[in-house]
Design goal:
This protein is mostly beta strands. Helix content is about 0%, strand content about 50%. It contains no helices and 15 strands. Strands 7, 8, 9, 10, 11 and 14 form a 6-stranded antiparallel beta sheet that branches. It has a 5-stranded antiparallel beta sheet with strand order 3-4-5-6-15, with no helix packed on it. Strands 1-2 form a two-stranded antiparallel sheet. A hairpin with a 5-residue loop joins strand 5 and strand 6 (about 70-80). The chain is globular, with a radius of gyration of 17 Å.
């Protein structure tokens, strides 16, 4: 049985279900964050995972790309040695130039207990930029890290508790395409034994 799974439901303008994609690892927490779309109809799932099928870390950020029929295109995980959280609500957005921005907070990088991070991916999910707000040794926290785009510019919101710090580049992050997902998003454990897309109920 799964703990938490990702689920994307494609609906028409009358809110009737067209198809649904569900993915989850047995005994792992796969938290959904947000689905955003670009001008070409592609859909990006911005989320976090505790699955060791992606890496051996506690939690990693993940980005998946689907076409408008929810067919898997590509994916990328990102993280360090401990916790790299993605918010439940609005962790990211797609800029006018098609690049994908993702934000969150991490204990893998920096000298504060938790620090903000912002990632920029191109439309093929190659990492373009990785930035960290480091609290400079404070034992307090930066929480949140939600990102919205104004044109091609990301705007990050969150909150910090008695923390001052500076922005810097992240150079030691681990990132990669999960090998089980390169050709088929359903290669791992799914709820349906036959497929992850189902017809809308009559």
């Amino acid at each position: 049985s799964q703990y938490y799974d990702w689920e994307i439901i494609h609906m028409d303008s009358d809110l009737s279900e067209i198809n649904t994609l569900t993915y989850g690892q047995t005994s792992y927490y796969d938290y959904g964050g947000q689905a955003v779309s670009d001008g070409d109809g592609n859909v990006y799932l911005l989320a976090r995972t505790g699955s060791n099928q992606f890496s051996s870390h506690s939690y990693d950020a993940v980005v998946f790309k689907f076409n408008d029929d929810l067919q898997y295109q590509t994916g990328k995980w990102w993280g360090g040695s401990t916790y790299d959280y993605v918010q439940y609500y609005t962790p990211g957005d797609v800029a006018n130039n098609g690049n994908v921005f993702l934000g969150g907070y991490t204990s893998s990088f920096g000298s504060t207990t938790y620090n903000f991070y912002v990632l920029e991916f191109d439309s093929s999910l190659n990492v373009v930029t990785q930035k960290l707000f480091d609290g400079s040794g404070s034992s307090y926290y930066c929480y949140g890290g939600e990102v919205a785009c104004a044109g091609n510019t990301p705007i990050l919101t969150g909150y910090r508790y008695q923390v001052d710090g500076t922005w810097s580049d992240i150079t030691t992050a681990n990132t990669g395409v999960p090998p089980e997902l390169i050709s088929n998003f359903t290669a791992l454990d799914v709820k349906s034994s036959s497929a992850t897309t189902t017809s809308a109920p009559l």
